[in-house]
Structure to design on (457 residues):
């Protein structure tokens, strides 16, 4: 806004030189009013013909001013970055206090108490084996409807969170090979939850948790055991295309803070010397594609080796970049986060904790306090999971669900083993149907200790 004020002062000086005055006009349209529309009135000559004699250069200046005002006003509607701070549209800074909607669009095995069957595709296969593909599809449709609802978003806001991070699997946004069309249920699911967040004034960060080919090479990215993304031009292009389409859809949504391009890339047990140099160039390509359609939102980029290694990055390559790190199961000491603080200071950019948690309430409280002491916003993990106090709410485990867990830990690939160990299908259906009810917020147990540890109660 200061830039606009300076421009107005400059133009008033020119108006004086041209013997013109600004005549305010009552603007009923809020869009025009917000963009400081006005008309010019010649002090000496009132007829229309003389007004046309105003120089072309001056007209051009007026056009530039109005265009600049429009652009800045547009950008001013969005959360942005200023140095190491996140800045609200009004100019005040905000310390992000968020929670991850884990397990909703990226089912994870441990959330169901599976150890062996631990990635989304393995879980989908398991349910196909248990109840058949058609019934399993019906389950997942209902699951996505019930697991996160408008009630959940309202509850999150009521607790005092100001933001959420939404992990999603790329598979929900593109059809299978060979067609690879940018279609899927994911688009409508995100649109719906973003609208709910807009109603609650709860900020959103979108997170591609599972990228085409796999960016991590472990169960969390739904890959095939290797970060093939960095060796597959096709996978990279699909990822770029999905992000560009999402950016085009949400470019005008001010409730969205930004886009977390990929979660925890390049696990430490792969060839870091070969793969790490490929990370930042891919970030740049994705960002460039997003900027073709969306110049409003912040781009979040995470370091290599589970969002911990930032030494591989050069200076910021976009004027709306934020950097996100993840930390689990560490000591609660300044040295744990000092490298991230130093990186933020070196480049004068915001640092944000995109994930942490899965620990005792005392650890959560102490680590959250350490972050806030260093003015670092956070987004803990997760909001909801089954039979656990390490989340905001807990889902009650249904009767017979232990039969599913037992089967999931056995041999689910050999047809002979499946025939021998398959649990009773009616009991399985009963357990899954009950899960769909139990995962609704109204049927969950609230973990007060976890919420207090986050300083919210």
């Amino acid at each position: 806004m200061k830039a606009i004020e300076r421009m107005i002062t400059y133009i008033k000086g020119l108006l004086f030189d041209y013997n013109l005055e600004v005549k305010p006009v009552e603007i009923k349209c809020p869009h025009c009013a917000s963009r400081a529309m006005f008309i010019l009135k010649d002090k000496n000559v009132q007829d229309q013909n003389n007004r046309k004699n105003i120089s072309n250069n001056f007209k051009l200046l007026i056009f530039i001013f109005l265009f600049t005002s429009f652009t800045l006003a547009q950008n001013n509607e969005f959360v942005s970055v200023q140095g190491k701070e996140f800045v609200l549209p009004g100019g005040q800074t905000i310390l992000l206090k968020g929670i991850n909607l884990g397990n909703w669009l990226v089912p994870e095995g441990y959330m169901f108490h599976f150890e062996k069957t631990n990635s989304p595709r393995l879980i989908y296969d398991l349910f196909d084996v248990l109840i058949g593909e058609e019934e399993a599809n019906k389950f997942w449709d209902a699951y996505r409807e019930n697991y996160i609802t408008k009630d959940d978003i309202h509850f999150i806001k009521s607790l005092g969170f100001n933001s959420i991070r939404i992990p999603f699997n790329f598979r929900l946004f593109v059809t299978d090979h060979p067609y690879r069309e940018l279609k899927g249920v994911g688009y409508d699911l995100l649109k719906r939850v973003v609208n709910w967040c807009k109603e609650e004034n709860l900020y959103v960060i979108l997170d591609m948790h599972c990228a085409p080919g796999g960016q991590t090479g472990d169960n969390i990215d739904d890959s095939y055991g290797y970060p093939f993304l960095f060796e597959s031009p096709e996978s990279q292009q699909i990822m770029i295309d999905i992000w560009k389409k999402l950016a085009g859809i949400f470019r005008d949504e001010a409730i969205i803070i930004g886009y977390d391009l990929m979660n925890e890339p390049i696990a430490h047990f792969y060839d870091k010397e070969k793969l790490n140099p490929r990370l930042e160039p891919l970030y740049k390509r994705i960002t460039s594609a997003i900027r073709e359609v969306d110049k409003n939102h912040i781009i979040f980029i995470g370091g290599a080796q589970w969002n911990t290694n930032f030494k591989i990055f050069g200076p910021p390559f976009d004027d709306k970049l934020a950097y996100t790190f993840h930390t689990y199961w560490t000591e609660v000491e300044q040295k744990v986060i000092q490298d991230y603080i130093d990186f933020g200071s070196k480049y004068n950019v915001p640092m944000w904790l995109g994930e942490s948690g899965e620990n005792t309430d005392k650890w959560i409280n102490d680590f959250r306090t350490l972050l806030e002491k260093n003015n670092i916003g956070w987004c803990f993990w997760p909001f909801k999971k089954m039979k656990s106090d390490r989340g905001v709410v807990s889902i009650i485990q249904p009767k017979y669900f232990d039969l599913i867990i037992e089967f999931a830990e056995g041999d689910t690939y050999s047809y002979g083993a499946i025939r021998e160990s398959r649990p009773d299908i009616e009991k399985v259906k009963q357990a899954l149907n009950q899960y769909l009810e139990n995962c609704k917020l109204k049927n969950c147990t609230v973990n007060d200790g976890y919420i207090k540890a986050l300083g919210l109660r």
Summary: The radius of gyration is 26 Å. Residues 2-75 form one domain. The first helix runs from residue 2 to 17. The chain has a mean pLDDT of 88.
